[in-house]
Design a protein that fits this description.
Structural class: mainly alpha
Number of domains: 1
Shape: globular
Helix content: over 70%
Low-confidence stretches: 359-363, 441-451
Number of helices: 17
Strand content: under 5%
């Protein structure tokens, strides 16, 4: 009886053995897949943070120079702080957003060219960007020259408008530095040469603190000294990155000045303009909010309060902008190499780690994002801010609430939904065709002029 029961147990064990083996095999396979996923996430995270980490430091240091200027101006008086805030955040800020957005076209072009191993194109793209942005700087000069009458026309008090107009004139050298600094930064980021950004920005910040102290407290130049200090510091950024680029540290991507930079400028201008509209619509939204506070009862205090809030928020935004740049470069690199799945995986890792999408730049979706920015910020965010600020009498708090919840949050949700439903293989095919098109030599091209 015992032997029969034992025999039945053995037969039952043999019957279930294939199932147990299958389950064990499935478990091993799942563990291997999980291990492979962890390894891929780790590798992608290292690639992402190789860009994001230095980018965060660079942006925080650059933004800190603006804040240091506001701190020094605040010690001069409320009028001086208000004039620096309006000149820097409104006049310079309007142009900053447009030029920064136009330079973002390089994140698409340089990132995809680097992924496709067409290294020589990066230097040509950067030179084209220099030409386009420098030309735009001249077109934007009237905003600086006629800043005072424009601000008065927008309802700002005469003393604030006059002082802001004076500061705006002294910010013209800063304005022209954007034409070279923005393309240089994206040129270096796209080829993962990010450590130089840390050292250059640190040097510029130290120089800025010293020069601000010298011009304001020792030479007594007042608010003009604060503006000159900011001019000097931003040009330190330009010359630092330029020296690194042309002194042999970018041998494959910088082959000297090239006549090819003047070919294809029309198409380059179209892509740059689309990028500029995408970012400046978001950037201008914040500048409009500062102008709106000028209609309050105590203009100087209201502008000063909102400027301080935006400065603090600006530090936080530096993290988001760094992920924006890092994700754009990673997506562009993979799309340029024809790896649609890798681009999608890079997007997932970045979104999980940052909760912010910068993906649209790497893929070249600038035009679509411009429409989204108009809808979220101007059709929803701005009216909500006006309603909360004036109808519900919440003042600066209402304007700030409309900006955050009506504009920024909604834009993030919409972009996230678009990214999730994107066909990444199709985007990789488009990127490959894009690189091939732009890498085609011009019939009028000539050899580059090397240094």
């Amino acid at each position: 009886m015992g032997s029969a029961a034992k025999k039945d147990d053995e037969e039952e064990a043999l019957h279930h053995q294939p199932l147990l083996v299958a389950r064990k095999g499935l478990q091993v396979e799942e563990e291997e897949n999980l291990g492979d996923l962890k390894r891929r996430v780790w590798v992608e995270s290292k690639k992402l943070w190789h860009i994001v980490g230095p980018s965060i430091f660079f942006r925080i240091a650059s933004n800190s120079m603006n804040i240091v200027t506001q701190v020094f101006a605040g010690h001069l008086g409320n009028l001086e702080l208000a004039s620096i805030s309006i000149a820097n955040n409104v006049i310079v800020g309007f142009n900053f957003g447009l030029l920064l957005g136009m330079a973002s076209a390089l994140e698409t072009l340089c990132g995809q060219a680097f992924g496709a191993k067409n290294y020589h194109l990066l230097g040509i793209y950067m030179q084209r960007s220099w030409i386009v942005l420098f030309f735009c700087c001249f077109l934007l000069l009237p905003l600086y020259i006629f800043a005072s009458p424009v601000l008065k026309l927008l309802g700002q008090p005469d003393d604030v408008a006059e002082q802001s107009g004076l500061v705006a004139l002294w910010f013209i050298p800063l304005h022209f530095s954007f034409a070279f600094q923005f393309p240089l930064q994206r040129f270096l980021q796209s080829q993962l040469k990010t450590s130089v950004l840390v050292w250059v920005s640190l040097l510029a910040l130290v120089v800025h603190v010293f020069v601000s102290w010298l011009f304001i407290y020792q030479l007594h130049f007042g608010v003009v000294g604060a503006a000159i200090a900011l001019d000097v510091s931003w040009w330190v950024l330009v010359f630092g990155m330029l020296c690194y680029t042309i002194c042999g540290r970018c041998g494959e991507t910088w082959t000297g000045l090239s006549i090819q930079a003047f070919s294809g400028l029309c198409e380059f201008l179209k892509l740059s303009a689309a990028s500029g509209v995408m970012l400046c619509l978001e950037n201008w939204y914040y500048r409009i909010l500062i102008l709106m506070t000028g209609f309050s009862n105590d203009t100087k205090v209201a502008v000063d309060a909102l400027s301080v809030c935006m400065s603090i928020n600006g530090w936080e935004m530096m993290f988001a902008l760094a992920f924006f740049a890092g994700t754009g470069v990673r997506v562009a690199n993979e799309l340029g190499a024809g790896n649609g799945k890798a681009a999608k995986f890079a997007t997932k890792v970045s979104v999980v780690q940052s909760t912010i999408v910068g993906v649209a730049v790497g893929s070249g979706w600038q035009t679509w994002v411009a429409y989204i920015n108009v809808g979220c910020y101007y059709l929803i965010g701005l009216p909500v801010g006006i309603i909360l600020g004036w109808i519900f009498h919440l003042g600066v708090e209402g304007i700030w609430g409309g900006m955050i919840f009506g504009g920024t949050a909604l834009q993030t949700i919409v972009l996230a939904m678009i990214t999730v439903h994107c066909n990444w293989e199709k985007e990789a095919e488009k990127a490959t065709m894009h690189v091939q098109k732009w890498s085609s030599p011009s019939p009028n091209s000539q050899p580059s002029i090397k240094h």
